[in-house]
Predict the 3D structure of the following.
Amino acid sequence: FDPNADAKRNKIWQLMEYYLGPDVGSIQRGIVNHVEYTLAATRFSFATEECYRATAFSIRDRLIETFNDTNEFFTAKDVKRCYYLSLEFLLGRAMQNALVNLDIEPNYKKALADIGYNLEELYEHEHDPALGNGGLGRLAACFLDSMATLNYAVWGYGIRYTYGIFEQKIVEGRQVEHPDYWLVTANPWEIERPDVTYAVRFYGHVDTYKDDKGRERHRWTGGEIVQAMAYDNPIPGFDTYNTINLRLWKACPGKEFDFHAFNRGQFLDAVKERQRAEYISAVLYPNDNTWEGKELRLKQQYFFVCATIQDCLRRFKKKEGRSWDELPSKVCFQLNDTHPTIAIPEMMRLLIDIEGLDWDKAWDLTRQCFNYTNHTVLPEALEKWPAHLIEKLLPRHLLLINDINYKFLCEVRESWGDVGEKLSKMSIYQEGYEKMIRMANMAVIGSNKVNGVAAIHSELVKKDLFPEFVDYYKAKGQPDKFVNVTNGVTPRRWIHCANRGLSNLFSEWLGSDSWLKELTMLQGLVNHLDSTELQKQWADVKKQNKVKLTKWIKLNCDIDLDPENMLFDIQVKRIHEYKRQLINCFYIIHRYFKLKKMSPGDRDKQVKRACLIGGKAAPGYAVAKTIIKLCNNIGLVLNNDPDTSKYLKCVFMPNYNVSNAQTIIPASDISQHISTAGTEASGTSNMKFVMNGGLIVGTMDGANVEIREECGEDTMFIFGALEPEVAGIREKAKNGNYPISAELREVMDAIVSGKFSLGDGEAHSEFVGLIEKIRNNGGGYNGDFYILCHDFPSYCKANEQVDALYKDQTNWIKTSIKAAASMGKFTTDRSIKEYGQIIWKLEDAERPAPDQSPM
Ligand code: CR1
């Protein structure tokens, strides 16, 4: 007890100028202070780059205040916490988002203008932090925004990769990968925590011993120790005083030193050996929706999960007098796909080996704390690790997995009898020459709730992936273990930051900006559908966005587009066969041929179209890289054809990422979401496009189905086989019953004849390979697994409907308004509310307005 505690506190209070003011003067003082004392730059002339960093630091100061106070509030209230475990967070740039959410953007703009800097220009100086591949990582980032906004006590946990997703350059039409060393300019947004570190062990062996109560215990020893060091990234909520955290771990050498090597005089070798530790958090694996069974990847998974669970249990135990029984009412974890599933045996290890709980108690707690989100049913994405690899790297975990599996299968046998076939499907082990650990089965067995990410996908998860589990849990009285939570996107970034013109329009016509927190309010726009003033403003906003993208394309691709007269048709997403960029290429070629055959007079009656494609291919995915080359070559042929280039252009936009997306998406008239039905779990850019006034050309897949339900079928150009039809079509096709339309034949023939190879022999043989695989479909062989040939004719029709509607501009604009106004469901605020209520059982933990007077 310190009798002077209050006096000391008061003194500290006086020393601190509490709460940095939001007024222009305070902001300017903050920035100039950082120029001088953080950057040590000269205060009378600092470059824009330095101004960006000083401004970022001054914003971070404000974030830290609300971050600290939010944490203190959560602790004082002892609220239940949820931890979102993900190997990917695709945050995108932070500056504008932070200013918007802290509600200080206008004052920063003024403060900077006054000293000669343009805020929008500063935004462009930020290196896009890209610690994710695609939809899964971006979803995690949108989720964080909504978790903070909804005042949930959630923290994200992941890895602070030194290299994010590679930068894509296009050289002679081909993807070239450049390492993304994003920390080169330092990261002013993070808070380094050298005092928050945990030891993580790899390899070694397991000893058994008897404790003082005579119980058999396990001790994992030996091997290598790596330290995980925390970096905090404050995530401010919108229109709230809450700021939550994304804690990312960096791998550092362990604290123990190899004295042996040192004594032998091999000091430098010893240091070199220790440096290998840093390799664990060096690089993000660049695969989207494909699993690569590399040992380093498994190391990454365990590394971040081990540090995370230790950190979360330490926080739980900090409050005195805790009983372990309280754990499920205070802590839960969400596994973002199976990537962090090793957390389940890790939790068991910590509870049993370290905390001394008995097995059954530990398993009971674990099962209540974990939840698992499935993001794909594609077989190539489902993680299966060789048991011997887990045994080598994590020997204690393999023992625990064996226990978990054995006890689970006993439970099943008890209630179901010996149902061999079903048991082998539910086992964590996939038997065979090489025994494999099925991470998805472990995630289901160790979780309280399992969810898919869109209605159609959640049904497929139950029907195709886990039917035995569904039956089993139903029989056990847990019919609601499998649930759906449809994805969303945050309107703060994807409308307010990306499309300020549209955001202002919404606020003006709806009478306030409350729609940013209650997106269903957009529906109010439908009342004004017939207002020519609204229609005109709507068209103007779209025009301006198209002009902006046209400039971007001129700068990055040196291609001229006509934003006044061309329909902008956009497909941006990872390049993957299931996403069918190829069917888009086929249609573009078909359209080109049609134009070529027309008289100039007829051409003039056609809708002019700019087909814009973008996305990265995994570096090891050869087919995807060939598709990029094909897009680029189609562009070269079309854009240089004097007969048609005015009517049809094709552009491959390089290095698609979050910040480019913020320019690309608002400029679309239509966007393409055309996966084979049943393959795209949800898609999230489909939502962003429609909110920004673009219409969808799409299949009945993923969230398209629900978007159509909300917006009306007249707002979407739907085509293609339905999910229940796909298997039958594949089967029929295999047996040789597979017509290819004359139009598609013409396109394929042209590709095979070399029309798009442009004298490049290597490209030519790759293109021919693509086509021949599809064409030779039959005779028991599924060369056209994604049924491009089947869906092509209806795809052409959908595209004709696009042209027909576009010719009627008034109707087009009204359709676009109606669709955007009906997107209320697709905010992550709705998704996260559902997670909070159905899965996490969290309470609202809104921090009250700060008390600015000294105590
Ligand atoms: C899905 O392919 C979905 C995102 C986010 C992806 C995409 O349709 O929108 O997840 N899945 O839920 C994935 O990356 C590993 O699986």
